[in-house]
Specification:
By secondary structure, the chain is an alpha/beta fold. The chain folds into 2 domains: about 425 residues, TIM Barrel, CATH 3.20.20; about 120 residues, Jelly Rolls (Sandwich). The strands form 6 sheets. Strands 2, 3, 4, 5, 8, 11, 12, 13 and 14 form a 9-stranded parallel sheet that branches. Strands 19, 20, 21, 22, 23, 24 and 25 form a 7-stranded antiparallel sheet that branches. Strand 6 and strand 7 form a beta hairpin. Helix 7 runs antiparallel to helix 19 and helix 14 crosses helix 17. The chain is globular, with a radius of gyration of 27 Å. This is F5/8 type C domain protein. Keywords: Signal. InterPro entries: FA58C, Galactose-bd-like_sf, Metal_Hydrolase, TAT_signal.
Length: about 700
């Protein structure tokens, strides 16, 4: 969905509308025989190669790529290929069904699929959402097929960009993994004038999942039957790896919605419970969903969000109020990370939806962080995703929420964390890589994309990982503008794909031919052209890192699926402490409360520094990770110590900047019978208070 700073990504507005070209095909029966895209008619009786359909709809879009798509593995057994980690193929079914105009496929053919919304005729003056996303009055030529005078375009945010043949072109150009995020927003649906269905978010998610499976069947029919097409929905990493090895496109289902499972909050009161979360996660898993966001755009019962900026931010903040009864609340940030600035730009169309007398508040310039982090229900949902081997998307989480989520993942050494489209604070990058997670950058213009890729290149080299991009197509975000026909280093057509095996020419649909130099990234079919633009302007090494993306993404997924929590060696073990709080004899805050497995109990020390809690493991054990779940009274400075005899202690880990919450101390594996948490300096006027202490060896 939308990116934070359109101005920084799109210095120029509309690209030149140019290069009207060859009309694609003569009228024929739908799904009738057709020549392979970009090639001549095969000899009579010859069967097309495996990557060419036996029957393509006619008329239809050309693909413009010739040659066999690469597959297989390298000498190390690694697959190759690009990853689009964030796309919305089916968002035309979201938001009431009339916000994104056009369909990714239609049984009635391309003219039906690539048709504008009825209210956009005759001149786009009723394209109301365009007023916010594009500026001006929304006017445009509504005709899609066959002229495509005004859409799709890099800055036309409410028209279909994921027609199946355009996705096919991206696949033929080297893309091997695509994450289809099922997306919607109930508030946008409810306030938008035009809709042809209800606004229940989970109903929309179910419909989009069904449509994705229908698209798979649609492609399969072109290739001769079930399982024969290039568009393959996958539900586990091994299946995905085999699809990529074959040279086909592995499609992963994700979810990006504001109130998953109905988990909204109204006036800070949750409207869901743990049972709702478990039911929702189970249903999504049955649908084939394997990654998801817990919050998106609006604070909900699970977590606070990372703000939008400018006029769009104001509009989203209005939606936040309409959904929750509260506007975003901010506070000074406590660390180097911060949320996006909200900004004070007006959004009259959205603000008109507020009740009389209610206005969007002004925000202090120095308060950049959302007060809302990860709630207890949100933490429960994170752990529920871990139990199901799902991957957590932390983009759109406030820094407080993302930090807490990473704490939980680190406490269990769980690798399933994704940042798919540059909405995560950059300060989290190494933390994600250290866990084994995967990061993709938003599909910025080639210069900006290259600069950000180089900024994190050393980290990727250190952790041996590849890179990805998130196109966010159909996500109302804006895409790379054209650099111009007179750019000193243009993309020159035709060009070879990254592996050198296929030839890519300009892409034609109907009467319109797109050129990335003069049109920018107008639709998903221009992904290979954009990648060539990255290579030309940024260097082959950037593209090489992207070619490692499929392998890295699948490693993160596989590690999430096979993850088994390491045994907690401290569970129920004898514990001792330097002191225990004495003034509440009914509650009891003795040292055993920190190893009883119940986060509702705690050990609490006396109100002074230099306090410790010791755990006896019963025998020498291999120890390499200690987790500490602090209550409000936490340590600013403390160390983790180990001992063989309980008398001579050795420090294995320490910090002088503790921030409470859930801490994970990692150190080189060592043998110890006793583990001690030694508080040096308190962060509060109270003592030290720990809900739970976990001690772990290898294997998790």
């Amino acid at each position: 969905m939308p990116r934070p700073s359109h101005a920084s990504r799109h210095a120029s507005r509309r690209g030149l509308l140019a290069l009207l070209s060859l009309l694609v095909a003569a009228t024929a029966l739908a799904l009738g025989p057709a020549a392979p895209s970009g090639a001549g008619t095969p000899p009579t009786g010859a069967r097309p190669a495996w990557w060419e359909p036996v029957a393509r709809p006619a008329p239809d879009s050309a693909v413009g790529v010739t040659g066999e798509p690469f597959g297989g593995t390298d000498a190390q057994g690694r697959v190759r290929g690009f990853v689009d980690a964030h796309n919305h193929i089916m968002s035309n079914e979201a938001f009431g069904g009339r916000l994104i105009c056009g369909k990714p496929f239609s049984e009635r053919g391309v003219a039906d699929a690539l048709e504008d919304c009825p209210e956009h005729y005759p001149d786009g003056s009723l394209a109301l959402f365009d007023f916010i996303t594009r500026g001006g009055d929304g006017r445009h030529d509504p005709d899609g097929w066959p002229t495509f005078a005004d859409w799709p375009a890099h800055d036309s945010l409410t028209h279909q960009q994921n027609y199946y043949a355009w996705i096919e072109r991206a696949w033929r150009g080297g893309q091997r993994v695509l994450v289809n995020d099922l997306v919607t927003n109930g508030v946008i649906c409810s306030v938008y004038f035009f809709k042809d269905r209800g606004c229940d978010e989970m109903e929309s998610i179910r419909l989009q999942a069904r449509r994705t499976y229908e698209m798979q069947e649609y492609v399969d029919r072109m290739y001769g039957g079930p399982g024969k097409g290039w568009f393959r929905i996958v539900t586990d990493s091994a299946q995905a790896r085999e699809v990529v090895r074959q040279g086909r496109l592995a499609v992963v289902l994700g979810v990006e919605t504001s109130e998953p499972f109905g988990c909204k909050q109204v006036l800070d009161v949750a409207r869901c419970d743990r049972e709702d979360i478990d039911r929702g996660l189970d249903e999504l898993h049955r649908l084939g969903v394997r990654s998801m966001f817990l919050c998106h755009k609006f604070d909900n019962a699970l977590c606070g969000v990372r703000f939008d900026s400018g006029a769009l931010g104001t509009a989203v903040n209005v939606g936040q109020f309409l959904s929750t009864g509260t506007f975003w609340r901010t506070e000074p940030c406590t660390g180097p990370q911060h949320d996006n600035p909200i900004g004070g730009a007006s959004a009259p169309g959205a603000e008109a939806k507020l009740p009389p007398g209610v206005t969007v508040p002004a925000y202090a310039e120095g308060a950049r962080c959302n007060t809302r982090g990860l709630t207890d229900l949100g933490a429960y949902a994170v752990r529920g995703m871990m139990r199901r081997g799902m991957m957590l998307e932390i983009d759109h989480m406030s820094v407080k929420a993302a930090g807490r989520a990473l704490d939980i993942l680190e406490s269990e050494a769980y690798p399933g964390v994704l940042s798919s489209h540059s909405w995560m604070d950059a300060e989290w990058t190494e933390r994600v890589y250290r866990l084994g997670g995967f990061i993709a950058q938003y599909m910025h213009g080639s210069a900006q994309f290259t600069a950000e890729a180089r900024r994190t290149d050393a980290l990727r080299a250190r952790y041996g990982v590849g890179y990805g991009y998130g196109t966010d197509m159909n996500g109302v975000g804006g895409w790379p503008a054209p650099r111009g026909a007179d750019a000193p280093d243009p993309v020159r057509y035709p060009f070879r794909t990254a592996d050198g095996g296929s030839l890519v020419d300009r892409q034609t649909t109907g009467e319109r031919t797109w050129d990335v130099n003069t049109d920018g990234a107008a639709h998903h079919g221009l992904v290979p052209d954009w990648l060539e633009d990255v290579r030309v302007t940024g260097g082959q090494d950037v593209v090489d890192d992207l070619l490692l993306g499929a392998e890295s993404y699948l490693r993160t997924w596989a590690a999430s699926q096979r993850h088994e929590p390491a045994a907690n060696l401290a569970a129920g073990a004898p514990a001792a402490a330097s002191s225990s709080e004495w003034w509440d004899p009914f509650a009891g805050h003795g040292p055993g409360k920190a190893v009883d497995g119940d986060t509702r109990t705690r050990w609490a020390s006396e109100w002074s520094d230099d306090q410790w809690l010791r755990v006896d493991l019963g025998a020498p054990r291999t120890v390499e990770r200690v987790t500490l779940d602090w209550e409000d009274a936490y340590a600013k400075a403390y160390r983790v110590e180990v001992s063989a005899d309980g008398r001579t202690w050795r420090t294995t880990w320490s910090t002088a900047s503790g921030d409470g919450g859930l801490d994970t101390a990692r150190f080189a594996a060592t043998q110890a019978r006793y583990v001690r948490v030694h508080g040096v300096e308190r962060a509060t006027r109270w003592g030290y208070s720990l809900r739970e202490v976990g001690v772990h060896g290898g294997g998790g």
